[in-house]
Amino acid sequence: MERLATLAGEASAQAATTVAEPPAPPAPPDLTAAAFFDVDNTMMMGASIFYFARGLAARKFFTSADLAGFVWQQVKFRIGGRENKADIKSHRERALSFVAGRTVEELTTISEEIYDELMADKIWSGTRALAQMHLDAGQRVWLVTATPIELASIISRRLGLTGALGTVAETKDGVYTGRLVGDMLHGRAKAHAVRALAAREGLNLKRCAAYSDSQNDVPMLSVVGTAVAVNPDSGLRDVARARGWEIRDFRTGRKAARIGVPSVLGAGALAGAVAAGIAYRRR
């Protein structure tokens, strides 16, 4: 498992996409500091994979029954707080089977459409403001997510961020083979990806910051100088309090319960969907 996580992290850093050059920040570029943001329930309300799955189901990639299975997996995760390792292994082995033979170009086009239809209005304004704070300070801002790299890159570009690290699906001549490179970008794999990207980009991790809602991202949060819990689950809230990490909660009242909540400048195209519980199309 650790070997696969390392491979996934290295593959994600190697495949990390940088979006079109954003407008010049008001401050001089700060080349050794950056910020890393998880996506689901951190940058976006809910799970990007769920919205992606809904969009794919509408396009007949799989059945409504498969989508219902995915929702059940999400409910189990939210109640339990952690993914089951056996489930992750099973889902990884089936990952991307339903898009084998599809082209990267096709899935990228569909991802653009799904973002507009289902995700654009789900961004947490508070988290987006935190990302902008880093950009305004001349720092780069990367998304780090189990979401497929193709979709993660679109989210990053639409938000005006630097780029994205995501789960890498194997392709050959622009066509998906139905296999992953390593594993999902999840848990320890995210930490490996951040370290690999930092080495490639010349970042000083002690000057970097990371943001997440999930206890599963403690490995990533632990490799940077400043960790911030955003809309945290109960496990991450406990860890944050114990370690003195800042907590930001943009949820309110019953909404917070239903979904799961600054001085930081110095400091799962479809793998996640399957990993979260969608049965593959070819049965």
UniProtKB/TrEMBL annotation:
Where does the record place a coiled coil? none
Which InterPro entries does the record associate with it?
Answer: HAD-like_SerB (IPR050582), HAD-like_sf (IPR036412), HAD_hydro_SerB1 (IPR006385), HAD_sf (IPR023214)
Please give the Pfam families that the UniProt record associates with this protein: HAD
Which CDD domains does this entry report, sorted A to Z? HAD_PGPPase
**What residue intervals traverse the membrane?**
259-280
On whether tRNA-binding is a keyword of this UniProt record, the answer is no
Q: Name one GO molecular function term.
A: metal ion binding
Q: Which UniProt keywords apply?
A: Hydrolase, Magnesium, Membrane, Metal-binding, Transmembrane, Transmembrane helix
- Identify its protein family: Belongs to the HAD-like hydrolase superfamily. SerB family.
Tell me the protein's name.
HAD-IB family hydrolase
Species this chain originates from: Amycolatopsis panacis
